[in-house]
Amino acid sequence: MKVLEINDLKILAQRRVPRMIFGYADSGSFTESTYRANEDDFQKIKLRQRVGKDISGRSLRTTMLGQDYAMPLAISPTGSAGMNYPDGEMLAAKVCETMGIPYTLSTMSICSIEDVASVTKAPFWFQLYVTKDLDFTYGLIDRAKAAGCGALVLTLDLTVLGQRHKDLRNQLSAPLKITPSTVMQFATRPRWCLDMLTTKRRTFGNVVGHAKDVTDLGTLASWTEAQFDPSLSFKDVEWIKKRWGGKIILKGILDPEDAQAAYDAGADAIVVSNHGGRQLDGAPSSIASLPKVVDAVGSKLEVHMDSGVRSGQDVFKARALGAQGVFIGRPYLYGLGAMGKKGVELALKIIRKELDITMGLCGETDINDVGRHNLIEKSLDSLIA
Ligand SMILES: Cc1cc2nc3c(=O)[nH]c(=O)nc-3n(C[C@H](O)[C@H](O)[C@H](O)COP(=O)(O)O)c2cc1C
User: Does residue 72 form part of some domain?
Assistant: First the structure.
């Protein structure tokens, strides 16, 4: 199969990866209405075609958090990425280094902070989940600091877990429960099984052996359930920022009032995100939420976005609506699941090419000049929440 767009990688990933692992990525919470809206709303935005301009020498280079990057794209933190392909997070971080964009490692990754730091010189970003076991949280911050991470991404929209029906139906659990259905899910994906035997990294690398009393997957399941801290608030940003000492990004903001609160709490940047439709079903799409957030705080701090980005055209539209950085979660997971390192590379190259062509056909040569003037204003009427 010739891979031309992100959806091709999704199809290939579905063929190679066991159903419960593919389904873990390809799912939203409850009815999945927000999950669908994230992608659908991008299609509502129409681009202004411009001609008769010299569009040679185009440049996608831009800055995020004061650093220079090859394009305004970053990888979102995704837990369990390394279950899609052996050593997945290490491979993806290396690809990001080569392509000149930031990689964000999740607290719930399979490869640990130290694993990823051992294969890349580029300062990757680290996403923090705050746990009730504060010693463990302090440890994570200190380890990210020791690894030279470039920014701490604090996720605010998962203090209670959204219910994802696919995970329950596919009997996803850690440790895995042996049932006829789960056995079949793995037995029908022999190539994935053989590949995973080539690595020792098959559990949550940042947690096992680091959190008190978590020594294996059996104890991990009960630990995760008990540990996510529902009392996390904007007030906590102060001590986290103090301990971290570097740039902090608050992720999971949809509402302009929360964006203001994030600014007041000392955020250097925010990510407009609904967690890829995995948390509050019924919330507006990220792209529909972006303009009001940009209006509220865009002049004071960097606004980034994720959720639903599936092409370079989507990156262009988000950038035009004021996102300084645009993150992708599933597109990279599909690349990883389809063909490992090569698949992540392909995903990023597809998006880069689409972004470059779109920018040119909109009459722009520098991504930093892209703005609302590149969109058909009327097409935004039905979109903005
Ligand atoms: C399989 C999967 C795991 C995720 N795990 C995390 C996580 O550990 N931490 C986090 O902040 N966000 C997590 N997210 C949310 C992503 O960071 C991001 O917000 C979302 O994937 C963006 O939407 P997209 O997948 O449509 O690009 C996860 C998303 C997926 C699909």
Answer: yes
How many C-beta atoms lie closer than 10 Å to residue 223's C-beta?
19
CATH of the domain at 174: 3.20.20.70
- Other beta carbons within 10 angstroms of residue 228's beta carbon come to 15
Return the bridge partners of 341, or none. Answer: none
Q: Can you tell me which atom of ligand 1 is nearest the CA of 24?
A: 1
* Angstrom distance (rounded) from CA 383 to CA 385: 6
Which tokens go with 358?
């779109």
Within-domain flag for 274: yes
| Residue given tokens 């990210």 in the structure block | 144
Q: What count of residues does the chain have?
A: 385
Kindly indicate the confidence band of residue 221, based on its pLDDT and cuts at 50, 70 and 90.
confident
Question: What is the pTM for the complete model shown?
Answer: 0.98
Q: Could you give the residue ranges of the DSSP H alpha helices within the chain?
A: 6-16, 19-25, 33-44, 88-99, 113-117, 134-146, 165-169, 180-187, 190-196, 217-227, 236-244, 256-264, 286-297, 312-320, 330-361
Counting ligand 1 atoms within 8 A of each CB, the residue from 41, 275, 307 with the most, and so the one to mutate, is 275
Q: Do 244 and 141 form a contact (C-beta atoms < 8 A)?
A: yes
Ligand 1 touching residue 34 (CB < 6 A): no
Dump pLDDT digits (tens) for 280-324: 999 999 999 999 999 999 999 999 999 999 999 999 999 999 999
**CA-to-CA distance for 77 and 227, rounded, in angstroms?**
19
For ligand 1, the distance from its centroid to the CA atom of residue 78, given in whole angstroms, is 5
* Interatomic CA distance for residues 103 and 78, integer angstroms: 11
88 lines ligand 1 (CB under 6 A): no
Would you say residue 385 lies in a domain? no
Total tally of structural domains belonging to the chain: 1
Q: What is the pLDDT of residue 385?
A: 63
Percent of the chain with pLDDT over 70: 100
As a whole number of angstroms, the distance between CA 175 and CA 203 comes to 9
Looking at residue 210, the DSSP 8-state letter turns out to be T
275 is catalytic: yes
Residue 1 domain-assigned (yes or no): no
Each residue of 250-262: pLDDT tens digit?
A: 999 999 999 999 9
Q: Find out whether 304 and 269 touch, Cβ atoms under 8 Å.
A: yes
* Domain residue limits at 127: 6-380
| Residue 368 buriedness (CB in 10 A; 0-12 / 13-18 / 19+) | middle
